[in-house]
Amino acid sequence: GTFGLFGLLFTVPQYLHALQGNDAFATGLRLLPLMGGLVLGVAHGMDLAKAAETFSVLSVGDALVSQIPSLLMSAASGMVVTRSATGEQLGNAFRSQLLGRKKPMFLTAIILGGLGLMPGMPMLPCFALAAVIFVAARKLPAPGTVAPPVSGSPEAALAQKNDAVNDVETALALDVLALEVGYELVSVVDVGRGGTLLSRVASLRTQLAKEIGVVIPPVHVCDNLELAPGAYRVMILGTEVASGICRSGRLLAMATNGSVPALEGETTKDPTFGLPARWIHERDKEVGEALGYAVVDHATIVATHLGEVLRANAHKLFGRQEAQALLDLLARNAPRLVDDVVPTLLPLGDVLRVLKNLLREGISIRDMRTIMEALADLAPTVKDYEQLTEMVRERLSAQITARFKGADGAITALTLHARVEEALRNSLRDIANGTGGMPDPALLRNMAQVAEASLGKFEAMGAQPVVICPPDLRRFVRAIFERKVPQLNVVSFREVDTSLALNSVGALSFPS
């Protein structure tokens, strides 16, 4: 095992050839000493049986004793021959041959121990030697174990270089999705201490898969001593996208409606939605719930915030690998549909762009059959993925309608004033012709102010904030509000069921 397979094939025959001197071990046991002893014994008056017994023992014992030096010389000769063939130093060859394997040394220790138990054998020396060999065998490395390289050797230098490369690769690796917590929040993560955050995150991934049709990557939850004790942050590809702080020993109480009595506690805001809230003592939980507050613990705060962050950033977590996985899943039941679209009509990249556009505005892509049917119908004549997205949204009108329909069966929304629609169309025409730019800044400011002021009305009515506009202006209006009022959904008239009633909470118009 020391020199490898080829070295073994070369050294073993030479070693056995050097041991041929041990033939004397067999040929030395000749009949001549025995016969001579019998003759001499009988001549000196010994009984024949007694002479045979005595001189048989003497002849065999003398032969055995006389062959021990021969055996040692032959073994030494074998080591010298194999050492010269491999170029290994004699001391290293001696250690590798005699002390290189655990099993022969264990067997030697057992044999010596057995000899010590035999009558007439010196017990103490045999046991002492057996113990030394046994301990030495225990200290030998297990078969196949690679010894650490000696410091300063080429092997050590190579090992250090490989470690440095591995450290660099580890430093370059990025978690797709990570949740970092301060040390005070470790208890909500540690299952052994009753933490429930990990189970909540697992349930959240399942819920989002059903809700938006995307399998969220596993969340790497870890502690970060650089954070404040009760702080946490959500990282996507190494970039912080959200953060929050939980007060130690406190619960978060949020008013479910505006008419609840005041509750003693530190004023704050809900980290997820920015709603007014209070940090209250744990002992006041039942009091707060009785007054109509929603009281949540730290695990619920973090999990809820994480869920909203994942919904808002699902398009960032969705790539070609995930898109291909959805297509493969659809192909199990509709292989012809997938083959007709990808790559016959559209490359995977364009399909991915359409799906990411839908996810960016909170539209679920779970209904992949409807999406792919729409692309199969539209792709022969429409190649721009932005236009394809708008047309696919119209095919998903039932889903969009259900998303914004209230309990009364109506849709509560903002609308555009006719003059605003005309101004926006003129701006789009000027941009397309290269003769103009964005609409009047005063108009844009007023639209944003009216939209922000209407958020409270939507919240009071328990409806999602949405503005309904003509199909040709939807993308433009969405671009206007995307940064200033990102929570405002923008849909076109073609994306909602025309049979539903419309409750208008206001109209976006020019400043008065």
Task: Tell me what the structure shows.
The chain has 512 residues and is an alpha/beta fold. The protein is 56% helix and 12% strand. The strands form four sheets. The chain has a four-stranded mixed beta sheet with strand order 2-1-3-4, with helices on one face. The chain is elongated and about 150 Å long. It starts with a helix and ends with a strand.
Quote the beta fraction.
5-15%
Q: At the third CATH level, what is the topology name of the largest domain? A: Glutaredoxin
Helix content: 55-70%
Distance between the termini: 93 Å
Pick out the low-confidence regions: 1-16
Largest sheet features:
4 strands, mixed
Q: Any idea what the radius of gyration is?
A: 43 Å
Topology:
Blueprint: H1 4-18, H2 23-27, H3 31-43, H4 48-86, H5 90-99, H6 102-117, H7 123-139, H8 154-172, E1 177-181, H9 186-189, H10 197-212, E2 220-223, E3 231-236, E4 239-245, E5 250-255, E6 266-269, E7 276-281, H11 285-290, E8 293-296, H12 298-312, H13 320-331, H14 335-341, H15 348-360, H16 368-378, H17 385-395, H18 397-404, E9 411-416, H19 418-433, H20 441-461, E10 466-469, H21 474-484, E11 489-492, E12 502-508
Quick take:
The protein has about 500 residues and is α/β, with parallel strands linked by helices.
Give a quick set of tags describing it.
512 residues, Glutaredoxin, four-stranded mixed sheet, 12% strand, alpha/beta, 5 domains
